[in-house]
Amino acid sequence: MTKAFIALTADKVEAGALVHLDGVLQQQTRLFHGGQCVCVLLVTFPPGSPEWEKWMRARTLDGMPVVRVNSIQSDAQPGSRA
Length: 82
Description:
The chain is mostly beta strands. Helices cover 11% and strands 38% of the residues. The chain has a domain at 12-58. The chain has one helix spanning 50-58; strands at residues 12-15, 19-21, 24-33, 36-45, 60-61, 64-65. Strands 1, 2, 3 and 4 form a 4-stranded antiparallel β-sheet that branches.
């Protein structure tokens, strides 16, 4: 894999929300210069990447933990009545 490093300068940076779409995690970041949006970066985090794993651990559904798929481990939380 080849790596590239690009230096961008901006007066203001706005990072968008992480969005789960078609099996990947994506985030848009907008760069502003002189009050005008001059660049939009779309970053894709594939399954298994550090950001993907962090997002999966933090994800909840109506305050309940994520259901473990393809696991025989119980979804019940310790100390709860399942």
